[in-house]
Amino acid sequence: MSVVLSVEETGPCEKKLEVEVPAATVEAETVRIAVEFRKQAKLPGFRKGKVPMEMVRKRFGEDIDQEVLDRLLPRYWRQAEAEVKLEALLPPTVDDVSHEAGKALVFKATVEVRPEFGLDNLEGFDLPSPPTAVTDEEVERMLEDLRRSVAPWVETERSAAHGDLVEATLLEVEADGSDGPQPVTFEVGDPNVWEELTLEVTGKKGGQSGAFSRSHEHEGETHIQEFQIDLTAVKERDLLPLDDELAAKIGKFSTLDKLRADISKRIGSGKALEARRMREQALLDQLRERNPTTLPKRVLDNEIRQMLTDYADGLGARGVDPSQADIDWQQLSDQVRPQAEARVHARLLLDAVAELFALEVSEEVFEATLARLARSQGKSAAQLRRAFDSDGRLAELRAQLRREGALKRLLGDDNNGPVESPDLTAVEEE
After folding, report:
1. Pick from 121, 124, 128, 93: which is nearest to 107 by CA?
2. Statement: the pTM of the whole predicted model exceeds 0.70
């Protein structure tokens, strides 16, 4: 028996379904829930579970009706979705609910679906081929960075220069509610340090003082802050000799040559990964350009919200309270919109490519990926599976692996050779 009364196209990527739940089903579910309420009901003059059913329905009628909706709407939505072979991108928006005693339950559900793509041009992508060979200069540069990272800081009598460590106290002059001079330690030339601060301490020795000002914009106005800094000490790195002892200190390598070989391998892997990323991005950019579409609004809005949430989480991880930060969230939302559009468009296209080539994710690949993710999070595969299953991320993980398979197919590195466009006429006629 069909539960779908009608299907209406309400937008380029939107459908509205009118769904009916038979009256007999509604009544049976109502009775079942009313019995559950009766078992827990406590009313004056009655023992628990002994309240007459008519009193239960009268006393808890609204709660029972809401529980009926909470149980039946998702169940019959899934049945309607399967009946019309619909693949909703997000849970439906439900409205126009008609729920009257003795009658069928009728509701309307609006969902966004995947846009239609022709996908008639899946060849001839112009992909970059950046060099991946590792040079001796790159190896020596990284070796020097590692050498500096393990070098101890020692105090020096000379003036501070780029790369030195400065210990000082910093005071904002005439600042309301100032707690007095604050201790600061920073490396001269660090890009995360105010440029004005770096310029002021450069050329100064421990025991010397200085002052500087810096301006910043707040709510459309320019504010000037005045600071005083007193240098306590200037320190430099005590670089260790380039020898086997250094190699052992850096990574427990037995010789300097083995450390260099490891550095070369890591640089090569990084270059290969970056080259792969550049090729994938170029392909996706061209694929989106060849297949323009109207993006599902709710899906796009959801992507923007997720990006803003990730940004806020990043601030929190750095000790910044997002609610107290001076952030124009609407402006930030507008700034990330193009990136969100590109992400959503790319996912939809790769889903369409995967469907076109009937790509599937083997259980072996899926389980191996789940196990790898579990190891990276310090969990067992079973623990991660339960966590993913509880919030629907198992299906999303499988979808993401399928998209990766589609991208490999388009890049021609899926061990099947270069991609060839399928016979679209035959596909459309099936």
Report:
1. 93
2. yes
Cα 19-2-111 angle, rounded to 5 deg: 35
- Residue 27 sits in a domain of what CATH number? 3.30.70.1050
User: Residue 305 above 50 pLDDT?
Assistant: yes
Model confidence pLDDT, tens digit, residues 46-70:
777 778 888 888 888 889 999 999 9
Residue with tokens 């590692």: 146
* Alpha-carbon span 189 to 211, nearest angstrom: 18
Residue range of the domain that includes 168: 152-238
Can you name the residues that pair with 7 across neighbouring β-strands?
17
**Same domain (yes/no): 143, 172:** no
Q: How far is CA 194 from CA 203, 213, 249, in A?
A: 16, 11, 33
Q: Give the pLDDT confidence of 232-258 residue by residue, as tens digits.
A: 999 999 999 999 999 999 988 999 999
Helix (H) or strand (E) holding 343: helix 329-356
Rounded to whole angstroms, the Cα distance separating 93 from 17 reads 10
Q: How far is CA 396 from CA 66, 85, 109, 359, 400, in A?
A: 30, 19, 22, 15, 6
